[in-house]
């Protein structure tokens, strides 16, 4: 499927107007409710199929960030056969007490997977935590990059985005 068509479908499914506060603290009058396209199994499958070519060569584990990156990474794992890790914002104080559940990450090359990126703040925080646990991370992958000047390079990361705001337009 063409990116423009995919962007139009996501727009039709997930675009909201109003006043919204983003994780970064920024406010916006347009918002893409990522859970609306992630909850549509057909659309999510098409989105992740289009993302497969963006996965950097040498990736050993796809690491989805809580919470929006989890459905995306699961669908990507289905398309690629790569194992997945599910990364919490912080380790729980019970159970396994792990920051990353699922695939082992120590000594492996991970690609961080997120749904929507505005500043990349959570990607940087999670990358630092995962590197402390022995993971090698140089790349992140997202469905939508809201900000083409996301400062991930300072953290030694390259962001690969499927869509930008230019793709997210209403049907003409």
UniProtKB/TrEMBL annotation:
InterPro entries: OPRT (IPR023031), PRTase-like (IPR029057), PRTase_dom (IPR000836)
Family assignment from sequence similarity: Belongs to the purine/pyrimidine phosphoribosyltransferase family. PyrE subfamily.
Segment forming the signal sequence: none
Organism encoding this protein: Kribbella kalugense
Residue stretches making up the Phosphoribosyltransferase domain: 60-149
SUPFAM superfamilies: PRTase-like (SSF53271)
Pathway where it operates: Pyrimidine metabolism; UMP biosynthesis via de novo pathway; UMP from orotate: step 1/2
GO BP, one annotated term: pyrimidine nucleobase biosynthetic process
Binding site for orotate: 118, 146
Function as written in the Swiss-Prot or TrEMBL entry: Catalyzes the transfer of a ribosyl phosphate group from 5-phosphoribose 1-diphosphate to orotate, leading to the formation of orotidine monophosphate (OMP).
Subunit structure: Homodimer.
Catalyzed chemical reaction(s): orotidine 5'-phosphate + diphosphate = orotate + 5-phospho-alpha-D-ribose 1-diphosphate
Residues involved in 5-phospho-alpha-D-ribose 1-diphosphate binding: 23, 88-89, 92, 114-122
Name used for this protein in its record: Orotate phosphoribosyltransferase
Keywords, sorted A to Z: Glycosyltransferase, Magnesium, Pyrimidine biosynthesis, Transferase
Domain of life: Bacteria
EC number in record: 2.4.2.10
CC cofactor: Mg(2+)
Designated gene of the protein: pyrE
One Pfam family linked to the record: Pribosyltran
Coiled-coil region list: none
């Amino acid at each position: 499927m063409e990116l423009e068509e995919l962007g139009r479908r996501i727009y039709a499914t997930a675009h909201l107007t109003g006043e919204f506060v983003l994780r970064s603290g920024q406010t916006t009058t347009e918002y893409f409710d990522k859970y609306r396209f992630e909850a549509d199994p057909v659309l999510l499958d098409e989105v992740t199929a289009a993302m497969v070519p963006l996965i950097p060569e040498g990736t050993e584990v796809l690491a989805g960030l809580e919470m929006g990156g989890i459905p995306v990474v699961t669908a990507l794992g289905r398309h690629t056969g790569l194992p997945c890790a599910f990364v919490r914002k912080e380790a729980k104080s019970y159970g396994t007490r792990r920051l990353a559940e699922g695939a082992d990450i120590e000594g492996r090359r991970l690609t961080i997977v997120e749904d929507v990126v505005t500043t990349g703040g959570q990607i940087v925080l999670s990358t630092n935590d995962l590197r402390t646990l022995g993971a090698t991370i140089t790349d992140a992958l997202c469905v939508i990059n809201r900000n083409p000047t996301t400062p991930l390079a300072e953290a030694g990361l390259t962001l690969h985005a499927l869509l930008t705001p230019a793709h997210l337009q209403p049907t003409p």
